[in-house]
Amino acid sequence: MATKRRQTLRVAMVGHAFMGRAHANAMRQAGRFFELPFDVELAVVVGRDLARAAAAAAKLGFAEGSRDLDAVLARDDIDLVDVATPNDSHAPVAMAALRAGKHVLCEKPLALSSQEAVAMAKLARASGRRVGLWHNYRRCPAASLAERIVRRGDIGRVRHVRATYLQDWLSSADVEASWRTESKRCGSGAHGDLNAHLIDMTRFLTGLEFVEVSAIAATFTKSRPTGTGKRRRVDVDDALAFLTRFDNGALGTFEASRVAPGRKNHNRIEINGETGTVVWNLERMNELELFRFEGDEDTRGFRTIMCMDESHPYAANWWPDGHLLGYEHTFVNTFAEFVKSLRGRGRFRPDFDDGVAVQRVLDAASKSARSRRWTKVG
Ligand SMILES: NC(=O)c1ccc[n+]([C@@H]2O[C@H](COP(=O)([O-])OP(=O)(O)OC[C@H]3O[C@@H](n4cnc5c(N)ncnc54)[C@H](O)[C@@H]3O)[C@@H](O)[C@H]2O)c1
To answer: Which CATH number fits domain 7-136: 3.60.20.10, 2.40.50.140, 2.30.40.10, 3.40.50.720?
Structure first.
């Protein structure tokens, strides 16, 4: 009996370093663990250097490498463009891809500014193409479970969001300058890099919107070596913290730093409601902490839920109960959901409108840090 041929989704991926590897792995794995409406074909890796793009294509499982984005976008057989490049290229690459009629998955933060993000979202809506942002932490099973718990009211009305994302890789003044320390390439420092995730995660977990912010920021190392004997000025924050008020009256504290020794990827969010608390921490990503005012007072306390049972989000797609997941699985889950959304009618979240909302909070906090005043969010 002849088997029905499934449609193929052909992907061009732009950028092939850290995120390129994470995305390529997700694209290869998704169809092995999820029922997808398409076969995913890794068609081409686009980079700035042909030899390196070709080598990356061979290593990551793509058919070929290219340094000619325009030629790739002109191809009829490319359906999806994945943007895995530094922040300053998100808008030009994603918008060119949308104009060429491609679906787009883009890394975070969506853009360098709210204005740029708004233009991207407007074009995405007009294009009728599907767009998504790689806020992969949303699709960690424990984070998705936290959303379920908060949204169904298990911890009551939210009063506090307490979020920290701390790393230490820029602690030493000897670490070289890169696109991540230059505002025209990245927009902002730890703020856009790490607070972007916390802001997106908060909107996802609680459904709340940020109303106003008051921020402080610091750049402790003012210039960094370039590897050529010269130094380059650092014009982005090493750390930025802000207070916020949400649209339901809840209070939030957010802190991002890349100079917190010992903290490698400490992405933690605690939500206090009227009747309970949930805590998600990437460094314990298979677990969720939950406290509720229930049961006997003398045995009440935080409990730790191992989020890898069949009843938990995404768990059934992977291994038998209790067999753990890691960082890369959050990308696989994200990519699988995106591919499934191509057959559905609803929005894939987060999309570029979510990216605009995140960018508005980022911009308001940057402005507040400069002006030293409370600032309304866009
Ligand atoms: N979702 C996450 O958890 C997460 C984690 C890390 C980085 N990011 C985001 O992913 C993006 C990429 O970060 P990364 O860590 O992979 O950076 P990286 O420096 O490791 O890699 C960037 C890649 O883009 C290529 N590149 C640079 N400019 C280009 C251009 N104009 N055209 C084509 N290729 C270009 C580089 O050659 C390299 O292959 C950034 O926006 C970053 O904020 C997201």
So the answer is: 3.40.50.720
